């Protein structure tokens, strides 16, 4: 009998769990599948595009991406030796051909008086690349060549995989690639060659590449009144444009070939205007010849 005044309490049947134990058991049952499910694997990072026929996850692609040069470091003729090689050099300096050089940021300050004394009469300086790079040495190179008496011009290294041709032409003109009728400024150059950062043709079909080049050339002429010079190599032009002949009527050709002669030209051009014939010349490695005398060089500059 319970004591007088005490509160009676119902006894819990033996073996029946408390509410707390029931709640804990339910939570454990819900958590168990989560604990037993393995975590999802992390998504692998994709390397940059390296080539049209190389899978991006292959060891070759990863190795190529790791060894690619830094953006902005490209220059006129960067891919010539690797893709076309070298087969001799012109035997003598032809009086009917006017000697020139081309330079970029990797040359730094250039000894223009030395080049002038050696007979170099014209020069092209890299101004821009894509829509992301301007040459930090442009002023010394572009103005320095002019100051010693040379006829000078500027070039743009094209990256058709980054922005449109028209956008790159605008960037070029806005950062040193313009033209003036002073008789000493050459028309701008579109440097279109192997992609040093990835697929040789920048991942474009031949028709798309022709369209990109046409866009650049049209915008450059609209901005400056001049037809740009096209710098290229015959093998690249054949592979990446299908040997397109449509620009030859208006745009002068600057051919790249390290040999004793310019060789076969791209379709449409019956002659070259300039020829880059070596990357190992004196004072500045990249040497060129204008296909004519000094008076014809002045005529090209004058327009």
What descriptive keywords fit this protein?
303 residues, eight-stranded mixed barrel, 11 strands, 31% helix
The CA-CA distance between the termini, in Å, is 124 Å
What best-fitting shape do the alpha-carbon axes yield?
A: globular
Q: H/E order of the elements?
A: HHHEEHEEHEHEHEHEEEEH
Q: Name the beta content range.
A: 15-25%
**How many strands, which pairing sense, and closed or not: the largest β-sheet?**
8 strands, mixed, barrel
Structural class of the secondary elements? alpha/beta
Please give a structural write-up:
This protein has 303 residues and is α/β, with parallel strands linked by helices. It has nine helices and eleven strands. The chain has helices spanning 19-36, 59-67, 80-84, 112-117, 138-147, 165-174, 206-224, 234-241, 294-302; strands spanning 86-87, 98-103, 122-129, 133-134, 151-157, 189-191, 229-232, 253-256, 258-259, 274-278, 287-290. The strands form two sheets. Strands 2-3-5-6-7-8-10-11 form an eight-stranded mixed barrel, surrounded by four helices. The chain has a two-stranded parallel sheet with strand order 1-9. It starts with 18 loop residues before the first helix and ends with a helix. The model is unreliable at 1-15 and 20-58 (pLDDT under 50).
């Amino acid at each position: 009998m319970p004591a007088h005044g005490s509160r009676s309490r119902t006894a819990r049947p033996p073996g029946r769990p408390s509410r707390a134990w029931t709640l804990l058991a339910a939570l454990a049952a819900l958590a168990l599948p989560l604990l037993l499910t393995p975590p999802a694997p992390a998504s692998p990072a994709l390397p940059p595009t390296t080539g049209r026929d190389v899978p991006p996850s292959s060891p070759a692609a990863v190795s190529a991406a790791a060894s690619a040069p830094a953006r902005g470091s490209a220059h006129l003729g960067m891919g010539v030796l690797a893709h076309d090689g070298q087969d001799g050099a012109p035997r003598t300096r032809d009086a009917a051909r006017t000697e020139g050089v081309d330079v970029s940021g990797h040359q730094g300050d250039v000894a223009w008086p030395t080049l002038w004394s050696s007979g170099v009469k014209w020069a092209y300086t890299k101004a821009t690349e894509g829509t992301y790079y301007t040459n930090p040495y442009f002023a010394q190179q572009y103005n320095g060549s002019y100051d010693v008496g040379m006829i000078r011009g500027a070039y743009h290294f094209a990256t058709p995989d980054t922005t449109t041709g028209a956008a790159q032409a605008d960037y070029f003109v806005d950062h040193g690639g313009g033209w003036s009728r002073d008789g000493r400024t050459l028309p701008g150059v579109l440097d279109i060659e192997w992609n040093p950062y990835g697929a040789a043709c920048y991942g474009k079909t031949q028709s798309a590449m022709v369209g990109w080049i046409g866009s650049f050339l049209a915008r450059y002429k609209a901005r400056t009144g001049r037809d740009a010079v096209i710098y290229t190599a015959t093998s690249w032009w054949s592979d990446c444009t299908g040997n397109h002949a449509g620009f030859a009527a208006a745009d002068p050709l600057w051919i790249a070939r390290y040999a004793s002669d310019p060789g076969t030209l791209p379709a449409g051009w019956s002659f070259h205007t300039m020829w880059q014939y070596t990357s190992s010349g004196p004072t500045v490695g990249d040497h060129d010849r204008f296909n004519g005398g000094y008076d014809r060089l002045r005529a090209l500059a004058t327009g």
